[in-house]
Amino acid sequence: MRRWLVALALAGTATAVLGGCVQPHRADGDLIDDWPALPAPRLFMPATDACLPRITAVVQAGTYETVPCGRSHLAEAVHVGTFSGPAAAGARPEPGSPALRTARAECDQRAREVIGGDWHSARLTMNIALPSVTAWLTGARWYRCDLAETDSIDNTRPVNRVGSLRGAMVGDNPLVHRCFDPKLIGDNLNYMAPVLCTEPHRAEFVGVYVERDMSWAQFTGSSQQVHRRCMALIAVFANVPNNNELPYRAGSIFYPPSQREWEEGDRGVRCFLWSDDRKLTRSMRGVGPQGLPVI
């Protein structure tokens, strides 16, 4: 009976309680002024400086997850940026768009600040994660920069690691590219085996250059131009003249971004000194003409 009486009271019926003389509450006719205002909805935004159990191109609030960097994880969010201006006005940016290339450049710069150098110079890869199309339509304008360790320069699939990548390019870190012994099939490079620079080897990482903005098709047809840019880095690295004798001192090997990375805006090309006619047993950094003679 009490539940029924309460239900009637909540429905607004004037009912005496237990036969007493209590004045019933009467509505004032205003159905909204007694309710507190609902808080404004907050759009989901992922955290930066957080480690991630998985890498996804799209991040959704319902499946979002982070883990402590001291535990095994697959990637680390080194930056969360925001699209602005024309990039935020239209549809969500897709690979090949100027907005995504701008975001990639920001990711590269922020990663440099976190790890202490260019991530292209190490066994690392960068992925950009975006909100879902539905989230974009409701106002989400963020992008996340996810940095991950890879197995090798040839196998760029991310691998699990323990520990943050912060400061990874500072000091003698095994992630950094150094010397390699290339394995060939005929005249084609099969893979690059990393070795100590004091062990016999034929290749050494010399640096990265940023290619100009062009289509993927244009880039894949410009191998001679890429070779010349890498040879210029080799000359600076070994401290030898960049002249017509340079091809008789060394050749080049280069690793460009993948097509997906290129279309996202990655223009970093990794360059390696290549010694096809002699084994090297030391680093060629700063050796000068005597250390890398004409042959």
- Order of strands, widest sheet: 1-3-5-4-2
Unreliable runs: 1-25
N-to-C series of helices and strands: HEEEHHEHEEEEHHEHEH
N-end to C-end Cα span: 105 Å
Helix proportion: 10-25%
Describe the protein.
The chain is built from 8 helices and 10 strands. The protein is elongated and about 70 Å long. The protein has a 5-stranded mixed β-sheet with strand order 1-3-5-4-2. It has a 5-stranded antiparallel β-sheet with strand order 7-6-8-10-9, covered by helices on one side. 23% of the residues lie in helices and 22% in strands. A hairpin with a 2-residue loop joins strand 6 (179-185) and strand 7 (188-195). With 295 residues, it is of the alpha+beta class.
Summary of the model, kept short:
The chain is α+β, with helices and mostly antiparallel strands. It has helices spanning 2-10, 86-89, 98-115, 133-137, 216-220, 223-238, 259-264, 288-291; strands at 50-52, 58-59, 75-82, 124-131, 142-149, 179-185, 188-195, 203-210, 251-255, 268-274. 23% of the residues lie in helices and 22% in strands.
Features of the shown structure:
295 residues; alpha+beta; five-stranded mixed β-sheet; five-stranded antiparallel β-sheet; 10 strands; elongated; disordered N terminus
Write the layout of secondary structure elements.
Blueprint: H1 2-10, E1 50-52, E2 58-59, E3 75-82, H2 86-89, H3 98-115, E4 124-131, H4 133-137, E5 142-149, E6 179-185, E7 188-195, E8 203-210, H5 216-220, H6 223-238, E9 251-255, H7 259-264, E10 268-274, H8 288-291
Parallel strand pairs: 2-4
Antiparallel strand pairs: 1-3, 3-5, 4-5, 6-7, 6-8, 8-10, 9-10
